[in-house]
Structures are given as structure tokens and as C-alpha cells.
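Following the same procedure, sequence and fold were stored together, as reproduced here.

>
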Amino acid sequence: MDLLTLMMIAVALSVDAFAASLSCGSTMTDFKHNHCLLTAFLFGLFQGLMPLMGWVATGFLQGEWVEPLNHWIAFILLSIIGLKMVWESFHPNGECKNPNDVFHIRNLLILAVATSIDALAVGISFSLLDYSIIREATLIAITTFIISYIGVRAGHKLSHIFGERMESVGGAVLILIGLKILLLG
């Protein structure tokens, strides 16, 4: 996979984490650097682990019956994820609303898993397209760490200006990448 496409996927997957970290950061009355680091670490960790899990789990599905369909499967998975992200951006569920315990490890773990489930399907797509996974998962994790860190800081400074609507941008990017895979291979 070319680096530009991989970067676009990494950024698109990070948008969920950015929206959640922005929302979490907006609940901070006093800025705490360790909240930024913990949030970014957990979000990046899970965004990197989920594609690995999807890739490994899909290894047993490879075969002659899958080969002619792999581009369609990747397109459908990425489109479903993208449409879900766009839908959720217009129907927010109000994550990170309790300023008293947003940065409790339990709550951050739940958010980290919830914002990284889309990356599981991306790992499945990578496996079906016979892409490697270590470099890809690492770049996704690092990108998510950076974007989440920025999100918490920006959320603290900008409050709820951006909110969950940023998720629709990430969803649109995933749909476009799925279309590119379908049309260009």
C-alpha cells in the first residue's frame, strides 16, 4: 500500500478518537498534561491493536473463493464504516459528558475500544487485500496518538466548537478510499 493512502486511512480512523478526545478535553477545567498523554496513549494503542486483530482473524478466510471478491469486500467494509461514521456524526450519543470522571482509566478504556472498532474492519480489509500489517498498524497507532493528544489540548482550549461532526469527514474519507480500492485495485 502506498504511504499516502495509508496516511489517509490512519487520519480517517483517528477522527473518531479526535472527536472523543476533543470532547474529553473540553470537560477539563484545569489543563493536565497527564490526561492528554493517557488519552492519546490508550486511543493510539487500541487503534494499532485492532487492525492487527482483524488481520490475524481473517488469515483463515484467504482462499480461492475470496480472491475474486476481495476488492468488493474491502469496498463494502470501508463504505459501511464510513457511512456509520457519517451517520453517528449527525446523531451524537453524548460521550464524555461527565466532567468528574472522564479521565478515569475505565472510561478512557471504553472510549478507546469504542473509537477503534472501525480499525478492526480495516485490518480485515488489509488481510483480504494481502497487505502487510505491522507498518500499517504502527502508523495508525502513532497517528492516532498524535491526533488524540492534539484533540484533548484543543478540546480544553476550544470547548465544543467541533464536537462529533468531525467524524463525518473521517467517514467520507473511508468511503472514498473504499471506492479507490474497488476501481483501481
